[in-house]
């Protein structure tokens, strides 16, 4: 579908594909087996501009558009979905809200190191009692004199163990519920702020998923991100962009499932011929490719709308809903095409299925995506 892309977008896509194939792919299996965070890859990605694709050079970014970012996340995730979400959570959930809602001082202070991959970022929104219902946040931030004091527990933060800059959501006026929520920037090492339990997961095993514990964590007024009590809106706007990052991650997993299946189907012989000769296999490949291209077009459309400054919440939800379910579909079919081999760790397709499942859950489950879409259609 190159005819839908500019020369510059094709160039970045192909550059990221080469980098991912040569540098990320060869490490992916071992890193996930051992649960190793790919620090060296993140450093190299930073040097290539991939930790701040869609942000201006004055803040250390690569100065490209959001479409280029979508293409980059897809290519990275094609070779390693863990690395894909490390880059996506960093960019969409930390760099983006600081760029969009930060003061000039905050942007100058945090963005250059984040966009160049010298520091890793994250967003801590979820809590034990506040998942899909993100407005039910119990972490509090109280203004005491010149300082904010935060108390509470955040859960499931991607990049939480490595992040040096965290955007943390807390309630500043519990009685006002979603109208009483604010966002804060917290640096690693701030007294009263520590990483707690790290989750053991089904997939994306090279990423950290961390608990944050805040105990009388004292922050200066300059750590407030955006306006006081406007943090829920900030989170929702941030998640709209984040969902396109996850849709792109899902596209990468679907594409890898297709590529591996085609290769295997041409090589594997049964009944004295390649299994690619059997119509049952051909139809699976046809369905996988059709679903992938439909998902790609939905993600492309929402990214284009974002680049044009149009409202794109519904379109982002549609792209994430479709692409995530298609990633699971394609990965499951890839295992079927690989037969018994697909069920073993000798091939990557079992990893694709484990990695695909989370795309249906984080940054809003498929049920919440359907809720966002229907709310837009029924208003
Ligand atoms: C690996 C991983 C990484 C993550 N990374 C981050 C991160 O970086 N930052 C962060 O803040 N969070 C992160 N999360 C949290 C993630 O976004 C939440 O897990 C997700 O939004 C769902 O919340 P929950 O787990 O509390 O499930 P629940 O909200 O408890 O949902 C349970 C089930 O109920 C359904 N449900 C809930 N409400 C409704 C409704 N109104 N209508 C219909 N069905 C409903 C859900 O769809 C789901 O099927 C991560 C989670 C994981 C597992």
Describe it for me?
This protein is of the alpha+beta class and 379 residues long. It folds into three domains: 118 residues, Butyryl-Coa Dehydrogenase, subunit A, domain 1; 108 residues, Butyryl-CoA Dehydrogenase, subunit A, domain 2 (Beta Barrel); 147 residues, Butyryl-CoA Dehydrogenase, subunit A, domain 3. It contains ten helices and ten strands. A hairpin with a 2-residue loop joins β2 and β3. It binds flavin-adenine dinucleotide (FAD). The site of flavin-adenine dinucleotide has 22 residues, from β1, β3 and α10.
Q: Which spans have pLDDT < 50 for at least 5 consecutive residues?
A: none
CATH superfamily of the largest domain: Butyryl-CoA Dehydrogenase, subunit A, domain 3
The number of domains is: 3
Counted by DSSP, the helix tally is: 10
Report the CATH C-level class of the largest domain.
Mainly Alpha
User: Which molecules other than protein and nucleic acid are bound?
Assistant: flavin-adenine dinucleotide
- The total of beta strands comes to 10
Query: Roughly what fraction of the amino acids lie in strands?
Result: 15-25%
Mean pLDDT: 98
Helix and strand content put the structural class at alpha+beta
Q: Kindly, what is the distance between the CA atoms of the first and last residues, rounded to a whole number of angstroms?
A: 34 Å
């Amino acid at each position: 579908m190159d005819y839908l892309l500019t020369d510059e977008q094709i160039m970045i896509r192909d550059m990221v594909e080469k980098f991912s194939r040569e540098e990320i792919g060869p490490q992916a299996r071992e890193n996930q087996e051992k649960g190793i965070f790919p620090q060296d890859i993140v450093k190299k990605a930073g040097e290539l501009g991939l930790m701040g694709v869609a942000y201006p050079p004055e803040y250390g970014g690569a100065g490209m558009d959001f479409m280029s970012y979508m293409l980059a996340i897809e290519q990275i995730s094609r070779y390693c979905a863990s690395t894909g979400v490390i880059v996506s959570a960093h960019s969409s959930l930390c760099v983006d809200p600081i760029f969009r809602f930060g003061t000039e001082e905050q942007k100058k202070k945090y963005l250059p190191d984040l966009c160049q991959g010298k520091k890793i970022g994250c967003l801590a929104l979820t809590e034990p009692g506040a998942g899909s219902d993100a407005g039910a946040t119990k972490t509090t931030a109280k203004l005491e004199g010149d300082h904010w004091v935060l108390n509470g527990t955040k859960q499931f933060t991607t990049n939480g163990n490595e992040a040096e800059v965290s955007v943390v959501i807390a309630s500043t006026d519990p009685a006002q519920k979603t109208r009483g929520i604010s966002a804060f920037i917290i640096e690693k090492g701030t007294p009263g702020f520590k990483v707690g339990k790290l989750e053991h997961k089904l997939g994306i095993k090279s990423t950290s998923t961390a608990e944050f514990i805040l105990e009388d964590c004292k922050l200066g007024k300059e750590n407030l991100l955006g306006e006081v009590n406007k943090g829920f809106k900030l989170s929702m706007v941030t998640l709209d962009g984040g969902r396109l990052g996850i849709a792109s991650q899902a596209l990468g997993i679907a594409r890898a499932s297709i590529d591996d299946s085609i290769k295997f189907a041409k090589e594997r012989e049964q009944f004295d011929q390649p299994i690619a000769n059997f119509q049952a296999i051909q139809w699976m490949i046809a369905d996988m490719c059709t679903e992938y291209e439909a998902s790609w077009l939905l993600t492309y459309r929402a990214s284009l709308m974002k680049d044009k400054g149009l409202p794109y919440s519904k379109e982002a939800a549609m792209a994430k809903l479709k692409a995530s379910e298609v990633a699971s579909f394609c990965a499951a079919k890839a295992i079927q095409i690989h037969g018994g081999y697909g069920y073993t760790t000798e091939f990557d397709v079992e990893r694709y299925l484990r990695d695909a499942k989370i795309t249906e859950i984080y940054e809003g489950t498929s049920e919440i995506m359907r809720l966002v879409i229907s709310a837009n259609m029924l208003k």
